[in-house]
Amino acid sequence: MSSRLRGLRRGSQLCFFASFVLLFAFAAYPLKSPIPVDLFLRADPLIALSAMVSLRQLVFPLVWFALPLVVLGLLMGRAFCGWICPMGTAIDLSERVLGIRGRRPGRAPQWRRVKFYLLAALVVTMLIPAAHRSAEELALSESVGLSAVYLLDPIALLTRTFALAVLPAVQWFLVLASDTATVWAYTDFAEAHPWVLRLLDPVQLGLGAVARPVYFRLGLVAFAMFGGMVALGGLARRFWCRNLCPLGALFAILGKASPISLAVSDKCTRCLQCVNECKVGAITEDPHEYRAAECIHCYSCLAVCPEQAISLTVRGEATGRKDELELSRRRVLQAAGLGLVAAVLPKVGWGARRSEAGVLKISGAKLIRPPGARAEDPFVTACVRCGECMKVCPTNALQPALGEGGLEALGTPILVPRIGPCTEPCNLCGQVCPTRAIEPFEIEEKRHLYLGTAMIDRSQCLAWAADRLCLVCDEACSYDAIFQVTIDGVDRPLVNDRICVGCGICERVCPVQPQGAIHVYATGDKRDWGREAQRAWREAVEQEGAGGSPYPGV
Fold first, then answer.
1. By three-state DSSP, how is residue 81 classified?
2. Distance between CA atoms of 158 and 512, rounded to whole angstroms?
3. Per residue in 385-444, pLDDT tens?
């Protein structure tokens, strides 16, 4: 029975990990998956808690998907960590492939409480309201927290690693393999051994062709973070899972109500094989006792016990189960202070300047958000930096922010038109965002979802600076926001800033190298107006022509 349970658990791990990889692969244009490609992110209770507490509202797509895992946590504690979590499986596979077999149980007790302190710090970041400059602004704006869950949530971390690091590496490998196969196809050896081409050519292997590999900023950072988590396994197996994972801490707290327990009979000879085998150090030096908050229900202890002295039972005093978290009040207060610093520090000094009216928050001119994005504060709060929107973008236009929005916006998606534009027939980013930081929208709405405004650099433009005929930006604009005027006998382009939504097509196709002569800036971003106000603006412009009012209804 014990071997069957362990085999069943391993099969469950592999199935859920394969499901995670498949859903990640299905997040592509056109989106045809009958199952939400962001299913694992939606079902993450920590992400759901973060989004709803920090935004001060219910996010129903998260509630319904996270509820089953909350129930699982109440019934079986950290069973999610041992049976479902793709991050745990990725760490297990990485440790096995790299031969990392850290076994230092003595270090576990001093570290295992850290995950609870980290969870406390993250909760504090959710609760602290964002700062505003005046009471009037506070009344007019959304009161949101400053959640930092994206830093440590395992599902967001793994998705981000796959999107920013693994996907580009795989695509570059496929391109390299295709090029290698093309070269080999013209050799005498290849003609004599055609099977070599099949090994080298990804198309013949059924892996498909890649026209242009994607590229993401911060890809190496994402890979380094995951590599560091795996490397910590040299100290103890699944070091991240047993000591640092805040999602595991949340399940551990839920599991205090779990009725399932382990019992050790009198047949135990204290051989300590169960202690050495336990992946998360849940069994104490006395094999008759175990920390229920740490147990991930992997059942390795049942499988290795030579006397079959360990069994599953209903919760009772005779099981040796210990539910105490044994947290230090001082450490909890220190964690709360850490959460306060993590929430406030990104807001201080970076992205602000002094004006006569006080401190005025400003953002980078290239802070161009995807269509459907919330106003800046709620967007930064709700975004878990998972990278799903970046992965699904067919033009590779969405990139992690660096310094465009300050430290608080680091890693959030921004549009980089020179890499790729936001094409009109696509609305996938709103469909795959698990927290509704990017709210779903219809393609027809993109004509009034203003991301920014294109501006022409006349000192670089071929038509303005060199008196040469160039209609590339005008011909490419799908919103008819660029028109030509004849000056000194030469057609020169101008931008209608009331129609331009900042999609970036013009900047992408501009033949002037390397930066282009037309640029999209965040000027004209109307996210804080709301969709109806933006729609009214667009309708007023269409009715009044170029003389439209700068404010809806005026």
1. helix
2. 39
3. 999 999 999 999 999 999 888 888 899 999 999 999 999 999 999 999 999 999 999 999
Q: In sequence order, which residues have a C-beta less than 8 Å from that of residue 384 and are 6 or more positions away? A: 41, 47, 50, 51, 149, 150, 153, 156, 434, 435, 437
Which two tokens mark 329?
């009040």
What would you measure as the largest C-alpha separation in the chain, in angstroms? 100
| Strand-pair category, 290-291 with 321-322 | parallel
CB atoms within 10 A of CB 515: 12
Backbone angles phi, psi at 155, to 5 degrees: -70, -40
Conformational region of residue 65, where left means phi above 0, alpha means psi within -120 to 50, and beta covers everything else: alpha
Is 497 a domain residue?
yes
Inter-helix orientation angle 329-344/114-127, to 10°: 40
DSSP notation for 19-66: HHHHHHHH-SSS---SS-TTHHHHT-HHHHHHHHHHHTS--HHHHHHH
Residue 204 counted as domain residue: yes
Question: CA 377, CA 408: separation in Å to the nearest integer?
Answer: 9
341, part of any domain: no
Indicate whether 553 belongs to any domain: no
Are 269 and 371 in a shared domain? no
Q: At CA 91, angle to CA 85 and CA 94, rounded to 5? A: 140
Which structural domain, as residue segments, surrounds residue 222? 2-322
- Give the three-class secondary structure for 260: strand
Has residue 192 got a pLDDT over 70? Answer: no
In sequence order, which residues have a C-beta less than 8 Å from that of residue 497 and are 6 or more positions away?
Answer: 453, 481, 524
Between the two ends of the chain, the Cα-to-Cα distance in Å is 75
CA distance 29 to 63: 27
| Tokens read off for 350 | 């970076």
Does the pTM of the predicted model rise above 0.85?
Answer: yes
Measured CA distances, 484 to 106, 294, 464, 490 (Å): 74, 68, 11, 9
For the chain, how big is the Rg over CA atoms in Å? 27
Residue 355's identity, in one-letter code, is: S
